[in-house]
Amino acid sequence: MIYTIPSQVIYGQDKYDQVNQIIETLALENVLVITDKGLLDLGLVKSVMDKLRISNYFVEDGVMPNPKDTYVNEVAKLYKDKAIDGLVAIGGGSVMDAAKAINVLLCNNHDIAYYEKHPVLNPGHKLFAFPTTSGTASEVTGVSVVTNSLEHRKMVILGDHVKADYAVLDPSLTYGLPRHITASTGMDALTHAIEAYVSTLATSFTDAHALVAIKEITEHINKYDSEESREKLMYASTMAGFAFNNAILGLVHAIAHPLGAHFDIPHGVANAIMLPEVVRYNYDSSEKFRVIENILETNNLYEFLKTLNTQLGIPALSDFISPENFEIIANSTLLEPSLHMNPKAVNKKDVISILSQTYGVI
Ligand SMILES: [Fe+2]
Question: End-to-end alpha-carbon separation of the chain, Å?
C-alpha cells in the first residue's frame, strides 16, 4: 500500500513568514499568479501578494468554473517564453486545477489533452496554492480536472508532477465567501470524504481522514458566521483530500463530472444534488454506511443528506437539465474512471434510474 500526499501543507492564519522563507530559499524571480476576476476585484489577490516577498509577478485572472482545455493551453502558450520560475494559485478548485494544468504545460511539450493518456515527464515550477474555498482540496491532490471542450467531458490529468508543491491553508481567505459557495464547496468536500470512505481502494489511512472529515464538515458547514467553523471546514476538506487522493472517488463524481462538462453545473452543486440518491443506491454494498450513520447520529443517511441539502439551499437537478438529457449523462458517466472504485457495480440503467429518482420523475 502506498499513501501519498503530494503537497507540503502550511496551515493556520498569518503563516506567511513560513511561506516567505520557502520563497527566499527558492529565489523566485518571475512568478505567474493564477486566479479569477472575482477574487481580483475583491482585493483578495492583492492582500495575499502584498504579504509575499515576490517582486515580479504576472496576474492571469481568466479562470472560469469547469476550466477548459482551450483556456489552459492558451495561457501556457502565452507565458512559456516569459521565463516563469514559480506559480501562485489563489482561488477555488477551478483555479487550482487550472494552475496545476498550466504548470504541467509550461514545463512539457504537448497540449493538455495529451496528458490524459500519457505520463507527464517533466516536473513543473514550484507552485504555491492558496485555496479560498473549503471544497475541492485540489491543493493537496495529484490530479487536475480539465474540461475537453470538443468532447464535452472532463479529463482527469494524473501524476507525480500534477500538484501544488505548497498548500497554504489560511482559513481567513474563506471568511468572506458567499453562503451558497460555502455550502456547495463544502458538499463537494463531504462527497469526497464519503466516496473515499466506501471506495474499493479505501485503507485504514484513508478511513481515518475520511471519517474525521465527514464529522467535521457536517457539523460546521452551515455555521456561516463562525470563524472557528470556517477554520474547521478548511482543515476537514483538506483531510477529505488526503483520503480521496489515495482511495479515489465513486459514482457521485462519475455523474457530477458530465453534469459539469455538458451543462456547466458547478462541481459542488452537482455533487450535492447527486449524493443522496447515490448513497441510497450504494447503501447495501458496504457496512461502512452504518458507521457513517453512527457518527452522524442518524439512522437514515439518505434522509440526513436530503435534509442537509435543503438546509443549505442546494438547487434541484431540474433547475439545470431535463429528463431527455439523462441518456447523454449516463453514457458519459460510464466512461468516468472513478466508477471503478464505487462499492457497487453500475450500468446505464442504474445511472438513469438514479438521475430519475433525483429529478423526481419516478
Ligand atoms: Fe470533487
Answer: 42
Residue 82 alpha carbon to ligand 1 centre in Å: 33
CA distance 122 to 136: 25
Q: Which of 304, 248, 297 is nearest to 275 (CA)?
A: 304
CA–centroid distance, 64 to ligand 1, in Å, is 16
Give the pLDDT score at 271: 98
pTM > 0.70: yes or no:
yes
pLDDT at 1: 80
Give me the residues near ligand 1 (ion), CB cutoff below 5 Å: 188
* Domains, the chain, with CATH or none: 8-174 (3.40.50.1970), 179-359 (1.20.1090.10)
In terms of residues, how long is the chain? Answer: 362
The Cα 344–Cα 195 span in angstroms is 12
Q: 10-residue block means of pLDDT along the chain (362 residues)?
A: 93 92 95 97 96 96 95 97 95 96 98 97 98 96 95 92 97 94 97 98 98 98 96 97 97 96 94 98 98 98 98 97 97 95 98 97 75
**Whether 266 contacts 186, CB under 8 Å:** no
Cell of residue 274, nine digits: 447527486
**Residues 140, 5: contact at Cβ < 8 Å?**
yes
- Cα–Cα distances in Å, from 194 out to 62, 84, 358? 32, 39, 18
